[in-house]
Write a structure and sequence with these properties.
mainly alpha, 3 domains, 3-stranded antiparallel beta sheet, two-stranded parallel sheet, 55% helix, 6% strand
Length: 598
């Protein structure tokens, strides 16, 4: 009797309801499809998340400016003509990509986001394919893909303009190519992914090491000789690529480490504490992650796929690395995004261990809902708990002037100032720590919203500077990205030290600082450059002076600002430049340039 054809579980409703136990779990599907219906359905959710979070971060414009200068023939320089050049970026290959986009007359503000979105989609597809190959099809593949698609950090950093998603794809690609078929690891493919990861980010070799360590955990289970050999080959190739770039860096920039490492990296117990709070903050914000970790750990001993322990190991190593680094200031846990693909992998394998399709659908639905909530600033964990994991020390979002929140912030700051006068009082120290948390804490969603508003304003100021400054004029800034990109011939000195090599001030062990901002440059050190401008702001044409400090202003009898006073004018020249609404500027606004008098 002829056998009937097997049901196609890669299409239609069968994708969602098929059981992974219609074949041996952990067996290899040698020709799995990369874009089955299950993955495509999850990518719809991913597209909605990306649309919801679409934004650009100011740091991306640093890469854009370096890329623009490279494309224009000025080399890898922040300020045109600087010698020796300064490696003020940490994403070499992304800068090269930005240069290629400029060379092709493609807008990096748009195309880096398109590329990031595409890399995120491919990352989700690779996670789903690996789950489908080793832990079953149907709900397992769909669940893993949907979980990854709904993770807020992936939704945020699919755009942003940085290399985050491309880098995350490369790191996971190393692991996926080695473990997809452990009898025949794709060594050459893994080498390509490793090279991309090493060149995409300055610490890429660390993350490649994490991916390879995870592959070794997979090897420990089955002891496949080919897998071990492939891991050694990929590791050797990654080291060779890293060594080649180190040699290039030393020859071109005259240093073995990027300038960003000089300014951002600091070690010590207090920074380990802050890094631990960074990791804890993620777990308290996206509560589905600890749920998945615990669920996957509970079935690790009977995991037929052999991927749960490697996935958990990769996530644990990633967290340990961020603890050592002291965390990262950017919203939505950017530095841990490469680790989240491994969490999604663990989730898919956990689902694959469940024999009941209804149980898988219930667990998958609950985890999807819990993953989605932080995208709308909804949290199951009380704020008081999340405050205890606050890691952006010394950073508070100012409340709207005149609001009740502003009055509360003022009261809290006054109380903090009083408590700081009692350093030996244990009760005062405890209250001080609580007040700092209350004052400084904000959700990751709120940080993202602030970033959206800030970059819109900074882009506008940068475009205005491009129109109203001259080549060779200079300015000292703290947020250099958009200002510098849109005014490419303006010499920009960075108070954060990313693109400058001025001497660093001694690290203050008691200072409350954000991750990556522990080391400071003495602002007075920039005076030797005689910067042209002190500051620049977009102001209301009807009231251009209200943005200035009160000590700089003269007032009429009714208290209205008349303009800068003699003391301020003796030090600065105040220039009001017109802005054309037809060129995209807000109506009835001016560019206020505050120029040093020499």
């Amino acid at each position: 009797m002829a056998r009937s054809a097997p049901a196609n579980t890669d299409s239609g409703l069968g994708v969602l309801l098929a059981t992974p136990h219609n074949r041996r779990v952990g067996s290899i599907d040698h020709r799995p499809r990369l874009w089955p219906v299950a993955t495509k359905l999850a990518l719809v959710a991913y597209a909605l998340s990306v649309w919801h979070f679409n934004f650009l971060v100011d740091d991306a414009f640093i890469s854009f400016r370096y890329g623009a200068h490279l494309a224009a023939g000025h080399g890898l320089t922040w300020n045109i003509g600087e010698a020796p050049p300064i490696e003020g970026f940490s994403d070499f290959l992304w800068v090269v990509l930005c240069a290629a986009l400029k060379g092709l007359d493609l807008d990096p503000l748009l195309w880096t986001r398109i590329i990031g979105i595409g890399c995120g989609a491919l990352l989700i597809a690779l996670v789903a394919r690996l789950v489908g190959a080793r832990a079953g099809t149907g709900t397992t593949r769909f669940g893993a893909a949907l979980f990854a698609a709904l993770l807020p950090p992936i939704g945020v950093w699919a755009t942003g303009g940085l290399e985050t998603m491309a880098f995350s794809l490369a790191v996971f690609g190393v692991f996926e190519r080695l473990t997809f078929d452990r009898e025949a690891p794709r060594t050459a493919h893994a080498c390509v992914w490793a090279a991309l990861a090493v060149l995409l980010r300055a610490d890429g070799f660390v993350w490649v090491g994490i991916a390879l360590a995870a592959a070794l955990l997979a090897w420990r289970r089955e002891r496949g000789a080919r897998l071990l050999k492939s891991v050694v080959v990929v590791a050797s190739f990654g080291v060779a690529v890293a060594a080649a770039y180190f040699a290039f860096r030393y020859a071109y920039f005259g240093r073995l480490e990027p300038n960003t490492a000089r300014i951002k990296v600091a070690f010590g117990s207090r920074y380990f504490l802050r890094g631990s709070q960074y990791v804890a903050s993620l777990l308290l914000c996206v509560v589905s992650i600890p749920l998945v970790l615990l669920g996957a750990l509970s079935v690790a001993r009977r995991d037929a796929s052999g991927l749960i322990v490697p996935a958990l190991g990769a996530f644990g190593a990633s967290c340990a690395y961020l603890i050592v680094l002291g965390g990262d200031w950017m919203m939505m846990y950017r530095m841990l995004v490469p680790a989240l693909a491994f969490v999604a992998l663990a989730f898919g394998c956990w689902l694959g261990s469940m024999r009941s399709g209804l149980v898988r659908m219930f667990v998958g639905g609950v985890c999807a809902l819990l993953t989605l909530l932080p995208s709308f600033d909804v949290h199951l964990v009380p704020r008081s708990w999340r405050e205890r994991a606050h890691f952006r020390w010394g950073h508070a979002i100012p409340a709207e002037p005149g609001s009740a929140s502003a009055a509360q912030q003022k009261s809290e700051r006054e109380r903090i100032a009083a408590l700081e006068q009692q350093p030996d009082d244990a009760t005062a120290r405890a209250e001080l720590a609580q007040l700092w948390r209350q004052l400084e804490y904000c959700s990751e969603y709120a940080m993202w919203r602030k970033g959206v508003v800030d970059i819109e304003n900074w882009i506008e100021v940068g475009r205005a500077l491009g129109l109203h400054t001259k080549p060779g004029e200079s300015m000292v800034l703290g947020n250099i990205g958009a200002f510098g990109y849109f005014a490419p011939e303006l010499v920009v000195y960075d108070t954060q030290g990313l693109t400058n090599t001025e001497p660093l001030l001694p690290v203050d062990p008691d200072a409350r600082t954000m991750p990556g901002h522990d080391r400071k440059i003495e602002i007075a050190g920039f005076e030797k450059y005689s910067p042209t401008y002190y500051n620049a702001r977009i102001v209301d044409a009807a009231a251009p002076w209200t943005i200035l400090p009160r000590a700089w202003l003269d007032f009429d009898a009714d208290g209205a600002a008349l303009g800068p006073n003699e003391t301020a004018r003796a030090k600065f020249e105040f220039v009001l430049a017109p802005l054309d609404a037809a060129k995209g500027f807000r109506a009835n606004t001016l560019l206020l340039l505050i120029k040093h008098r020499r």
